Structures are given as C-alpha cells and as structure tokens.
Amino acid sequence: MRVLHNVDLNIKRGEVVILMGPSGSGKTTVLTLVGCLRSVQEGSVKLLGTELNGASDETLMRMRHRIGFIFQAHNLHKSLTATQNVQMGLQIHGRQANRNWREACRHMLELVGLGDRVDFMPDQLSGGQKQRVAVARSLVGNPEVVFADEPTAALDKESGHRVVSLLRRLADERQTTIFMVTHDHRVLDYADRIIKMEDGRVVEEKSILFPGMESANH
Predict the structure, then answer these.
(1) pTM score, two decimals?
(2) Tell me, which fold does domain 33-179 have in CATH?
(3) 7-8-11 Cα angle (round to 5)
(4) Rounded to an integer, what distance in angstroms lies between the CA atom of residue 211 and that of residue 213?
(5) What is the predicted pLDDT for the residue at 99?
(6) Which neighbouring-strand residues pair with 18?
(7) Contact indicator for 130, 76 with CB cutoff of 8 Å
(8) What are 10-58's pLDDT values in tens digits?
(9) Cα–Cα distance between 11 and 23 in angstroms, integer?
(10) Sequence spans of domains, the chain
(11) Helix 157-174 with 127-139: angle, nearest 10 deg
C-alpha cells in the first residue's frame, strides 16, 4: 500500500521547517524515512547529501551519528538520573565526545530549564520534565540535523516555547537544520516554512516572513 504520493521536499541547512496535517496524513512516515528510522522502498531520499535508498546498514548508522531525534515518547531509562539519560545521547560519538560528558549534559539540562533536576530520577520528574530531558539528550551531541516528532505535546506553554526557542537558536547560531512534526500552533512563529500534508500528499507550503526581512531565509 502506497503511503506517500509524489512528496517533493528540499530543506536547506539551518532552516526550521514544521510539518503539519491530520493524523494519518503521512507526517511521521516522512520524518522516519529521512531520519533513517525506516527503510526507503522507492524514490530518492537524501540526508546531508547521502542517498538513503539502498544505503547499507553501515551508512545508515553513520548518518544516525550526525542527527538528533526527539521522540514524542521520552523513552528515558528509569534507572538513570536526568544527567545520565542525557549522556546516552553522547554514547554513539565515542570517547572524545564523552570526555567532559557531565559538564556538557548539565549545561544542556540548564538550557531546557532543568538545572535544578540534574540528579533526579525519571520517576521524580513530571511528564513535561521527562520530555525536556529527552530533548536535551537529542541535542547534547551537537547534531547537524534535528528531527522532532511532537516535541511540545507534553509541555506547557512556557516549557514549549523554551524548547522551540532553543531549536531556533541552534538553527540561527550553528546552522542546525530542524525538521519538526507538530500540531502545536503556539510554536509556528519559530519556523521558516510550514508544510501541510493530507492523505500522503503535500497540499500547502508557506514561508514565514519575519519583520524587516524580504525572505524567510535568515
């Protein structure tokens, strides 16, 4: 059964793109295909210049080392502290990345507003706090691309804006590419482009014009 129909997307380095649409429209399928979590059956999908259709397991693993993925479910290890959970995001990057892991992990937790929860266990955290730990875990390795599946779904307004503001800052300061699936209309102003899908097709694509700018590329 065909899930996607003639989806043609091109996302530039440092761009923040939000993908929206009703349940079953194909959003998560697109995200997992380009995020190396699902095999490409036909067509062409390129990530950081590498073709994923027909890519070997070794190539896919190498590409996963260059990206971060924020899942809707936080998937924290119950036996690890917040800091240790964030460290899991560094494990795939080898010894060099893990050299100052505690400092790096605690700094990232501070950025998502959890500087006073660094040694808390998951069962001591609220649902929103667990989600912010998961966000910190995905970002601690300085990924070139961040894929986010409903990253603010469990967050209140303030926490949601803190997280998406951080993603926007990474795009602006580090040229990190952000590709986000969301139903959260509160965060749309942080995007460069908003793409809407229905029934496996792109039905609308809109650039966001920022005040004082002639285009959405900034």
Answers:
(1) 0.87
(2) Rossmann fold (3.40.50)
(3) 125
(4) 6
(5) 67
(6) 180, 194
(7) yes
(8) 999 999 999 999 988 999 999 999 999 888 888 999 999 999 999 999 9
(9) 23
(10) 33-179
(11) 10
